[in-house]
């Protein structure tokens, strides 16, 4: 350093002082999660929040409004329409996870597919309707998979085979 002139030493010192000031003034900012993107769909006549869900071949159109916890699927009660507890739990999962159990009335029209596809479609449609009603529960619904479309479909049968992949039995002799 003795060979350098005093002006360059000052410039070098100024640079170190500036970085020291910069490091002391940095602030920690808490990261807030970005809101879940959604479209608010409401029926202007009834004020019900709408949501559509699909799973396998099942399609569910869901309507949600403030109420007493009544769930009606195709004009029948939940336990009557889905006798298996697994399907009932799939339909109730978005309501439990969002904290609206006993606070909303749900009407669902579901068509196509079997019980598993229909209950999965109801689950997704109900999640979307709840998101339309209250954007605050979006992260809970998304984290638990209620807003994610399950794209798995039945694979089609191919000609020359017995099923989608099953071929004829091989005979060595």
UniProtKB/TrEMBL annotation:
<protein>
    <recommendedName>
        <fullName>Small ribosomal subunit protein uS9</fullName>
    </recommendedName>
</protein>
<dbReference type="Pfam" id="PF00380">
    <property type="entry name" value="Ribosomal_S9"/>
</dbReference>
<dbReference type="InterPro" id="IPR014721">
    <property type="entry name" value="Ribsml_uS5_D2-typ_fold_subgr"/>
</dbReference>
<dbReference type="GO" id="GO:0022627">
    <property type="term" value="C:cytosolic small ribosomal subunit"/>
</dbReference>
<feature type="compositionally biased region" description="Low complexity">
    <location>
        <begin position="16"/>
        <end position="37"/>
    </location>
</feature>
<feature type="region of interest" description="Disordered">
    <location>
        <begin position="147"/>
        <end position="173"/>
    </location>
</feature>
<keyword id="KW-0687">Ribonucleoprotein</keyword>
<dbReference type="InterPro" id="IPR000754">
    <property type="entry name" value="Ribosomal_uS9"/>
</dbReference>
<dbReference type="InterPro" id="IPR023035">
    <property type="entry name" value="Ribosomal_uS9_bac/plastid"/>
</dbReference>
<keyword id="KW-0689">Ribosomal protein</keyword>
<dbReference type="GO" id="GO:0003723">
    <property type="term" value="F:RNA binding"/>
</dbReference>
<feature type="compositionally biased region" description="Basic and acidic residues">
    <location>
        <begin position="38"/>
        <end position="48"/>
    </location>
</feature>
<dbReference type="GO" id="GO:0003735">
    <property type="term" value="F:structural constituent of ribosome"/>
</dbReference>
<comment type="similarity">
    <text>Belongs to the universal ribosomal protein uS9 family.</text>
</comment>
<feature type="region of interest" description="Disordered">
    <location>
        <begin position="1"/>
        <end position="57"/>
    </location>
</feature>
<feature type="compositionally biased region" description="Basic residues">
    <location>
        <begin position="154"/>
        <end position="173"/>
    </location>
</feature>
<dbReference type="InterPro" id="IPR020574">
    <property type="entry name" value="Ribosomal_uS9_CS"/>
</dbReference>
<dbReference type="InterPro" id="IPR020568">
    <property type="entry name" value="Ribosomal_Su5_D2-typ_SF"/>
</dbReference>
<dbReference type="GO" id="GO:0006412">
    <property type="term" value="P:translation"/>
</dbReference>
